[in-house]
Write a structure and sequence with these properties.
heterodimer; A: mainly alpha; two-stranded antiparallel ribbon; 2% strand; globular; disordered C terminus; B: alpha/beta; Rossmann fold; four-stranded antiparallel sheet; 9 helices; 10 strands; 37% helix; 25% strand; binds adenosine-5'-triphosphate; binds magnesium ion
């Protein structure tokens, strides 16, 4: 079975549309995401439900961004919340300055800070395309600096994880300060408009959710195309034996840096899509817990299989949405319980339930599921 | 002219001198065996050549002029130096074919890649296993795959660390044939082995290493007769 899949993916390495036949799980997930988008448009469920789907999709994008570096490259980031937050903060700055430009009503933040006008670094952010570019480039740039410093001096494994966690923690402390000028403790909220329309209108809520689902489908398809190609094979090789790959003439630093920056950009995209749907951004997205939780989503869903990250993010967060209403105190215990179950019983995450095959040690990329 | 020149090389771990002023020269086309008791520094020598261990003194020259001493692992590999590790190091999550493709290296033209992979598959006898995951190969097959990965890059210096460790007699014979077939006038091969019969079957000359220094250099018959060599090997 796996032999046949291999030859088919070898036969056409330059396909533009990724060959999803080799990965039934991912094909099913993408199919479900697209069907979900269509259903939101056609069936028009209650706005709170639509909104929840949209937020889950943003988390799924975030999980996929981590799976790309962790599952395929072996780099466990415990600081991906940083890139998510960069996307979120820039998006919030856009929403506030956009509303200010359209309505002329100064956002609360300006009164709170005692500003007469928005400071220079807000300049131009009222323009959505510019804000988008700023968010993506900024997170890629910060990822580059951090990644370059770490990978070049060969900081790997658990040391990298700890430093990435420290980074997000430092960012959180920084953002808690009011003089950072980004809302401090309170963050930014009260976004009235998106693209000139009231942000809470049902059409807007649906539009955002559908856009997020489509972005998720695109990210999944793009990630799949990457991981089944030549670069993807180098990533798996690097994950399993980086020193060996270097002695074959490959610059693993460059490979890791490239994928690391790409992953940070995808995480920022998730943050951009998340903030208008949840209606607030504050330093709590930079808390170390959230960054660890992202890794938990991926581990629970099954790492190194893209579709698994989506399943994990949706399953854990759906449970969280539901429980935080029903019994909020129980959540940390349930999350820890889930982690224990996965670590002890299902080394490949929930996907093990579907297959239960006795091959848990090293993971095959893509479609091990057929 | 030499294929590889090592001058006065020392590698120190803490206060322990794993290599202690070692000098060595290998001719193009030569198959050189390096033997020595456990801990003699054989693997450390390969680590130094491939850029994994940093020498504290001395020089490593590829083909008389290209100084490898301060280069990165990737630069050294791209200069045409390839290695089979003592512990089989293949990429378990990739198929045999994909391993060989990676083995071709970045400098291999895309048009040549599939030919080289096919040639390596044929030479190592792994054609039937081409689409098998390397992680599920038997030990001997992993050894051959690793040699195949070395071959696929058309290297000018081949370093083989214990290529027949853990192989059956039949597999050892096959591996000896494989290594003999690697010989080319423009390629030097350095093989580390404990198996004397195997060394005799493949090597032109042998270097006996002991405590990071050369104890003997010359033909295998001479090594067998040398009193210091006998002492080191019998005395361990
Ligand atoms: N990274 C390292 N750090 C500290 N000591 C090391 C390191 N690598 C090797 N050594 C020591 O250097 C000595 C030489 O090791 P090396 O692996 O080169 O021996 P070898 O000749 O290959 O032996 P074997 O036949 O067992 O493979 C050993 O005593 C070993 O413990
Ligand atoms: Mg050794």
């Amino acid at each position: 079975m796996s032999g046949a899949m291999e030859t088919s993916s070898m036969a056409a390495p330059r396909r533009l549309v990724p060959d999803l036949g080799g990965d039934p799980l991912l094909a099913a997930v993408i199919g479900l995401v697209l069907t979900g988008a269509l259903a939101l448009v056609l069936l028009q469920p209650a706005p709170y439900l639509v909104n929840m789907v949209g937020q889950l999709a943003a988390f799924a994008i975030l999980a996929v961004s981590l799976d790309l570096v962790w599952g395929y490259l072996g780099i466990l980031s415990l600081g991906h919340g940083l890139f998510f937050a960069i996307g979120g903060y820039v998006c919030a700055m856009h929403l506030l300055s956009h509303a200010y430009a359209v309505t002329g009503v100064a956002p609360d933040l300006m009164q709170f800070m005692g500003w007469k006008s928005l400071p220079l670094y807000w300049f131009g952010l009222a323009s959505a395309p510019y804000a988008l570019v700023v968010a993506l480039v900024l997170s890629a740039a910060i990822a580059f600096v951090f990644g370059y410093a770490s990978f070049r001096s060969r900081v790997n494994g658990v040391y990298f994880s700890i430093i990435s966690q420290a980074l997000v923690y430092v960012a959180m402390l920084l953002m808690f300060r009011n003089d950072t000028g980004l809302g401090g403790n309170n963050g930014m909220t009260g976004f009235p408009l998106l693209f000139g329309h009231p942000i809470g209108a049902p059409g807007m809520v649906t539009g955002l959710a559908v856009a997020t689902l489509l972005a998720l489908a695109l990210v999944l398809a793009g990630a799949r195309a990457l991981v089944v190609g030549r670069i993807g094979r180098s990533m798996l090789a690097c994950r399993d034996d980086e020193a060996r790959l270097r002695t074959l003439g490959y610059s693993t630093t460059r490979l890791k840096l490239g994928i690391w920056c790409l992953s940070a950009t995808i995480a920022a995209l998730a943050g951009i899509l998340y903030v208008p749907q949840v209606g607030i951004i504050n330093p709590r997205v930079l808390s170390p817990d959230l960054s660890i939780e992202i890794a938990v989503w991926v581990a629970i869903g099954g790492m190194g299989r893209l579709g698994g990250a989506v399943i994990g993010a949706v399953a854990v967060n759906a449970l969280k949405f539901w429980l935080s209403a029903a019994m909020p105190e129980a959540w940390p215990f349930i999350l820890s319980g889930l982690v224990l179950v996965v670590v002890l019983g299902l080394p490949n995450g929930l996907l093990d339930l579907a297959t239960l095959r006795p091959k848990p040690t090293w993971l095959r990329r893509g479609g091990g599921l057929g | 002219m030499s294929a590889l020149v090592i001058e006065n090389l020392s590698v120190v771990f803490g206060r322990f001198r794993a290599l202690d002023g070692l000098s060595l020269a290998i001719d193009p086309g030569e198959v050189r065996a390096v033997i020595g008791p456990n801990g003699a520094g054989k693997t450390t020598l390969l680590d130094a050549i491939t850029g994994i261990a940093r020498p504290t003194s001395g020089r490593i020259l590829l083909g008389d002029d290209l100084d490898l001493t301060r280069r990165s692992e990737a630069q050294i590999a791209r200069a045409g130096v390839r290695r089979k590790f003592q512990k089989p190091s293949v990429f378990p999550a990739l198929t045999v074919r994909e391993n060989l493709e990676i083995g071709c290296g970045l400098d291999c033209p895309a048009s040549e890649r599939s030919d080289r992979v096919a040639a390596s598959l044929a030479e190592t006898g792994l054609e039937a296993r081409a689409d098998t995951l390397a992680g599920s190969l038997a030990h001997g097959e992993k050894q051959w795959l690793e040699i195949g990965m070395v071959l696929a890059s058309r290297p000018r210096l081949v370093l083989l660390d214990e290529p027949v460790a853990g192989l059956s007699d039949a597999e050892t014979v096959r591996t000896a044939d494989l290594i003999r077939s690697l010989r080319r006038p423009d390629r030097a091969i350095l093989v580390i082995e404990h198996d004397m019969a195997f060394v005799e079957a493949i090597a032109d000359r042998v270097t006996v290493l002991h405590e990071g220094r050369t104890l003997f250099e010359g033909g295998m018959a001479g090594a067998r007769a040398d009193s210091r060599v006998i002492e080191v090997f019998l005395g361990r």
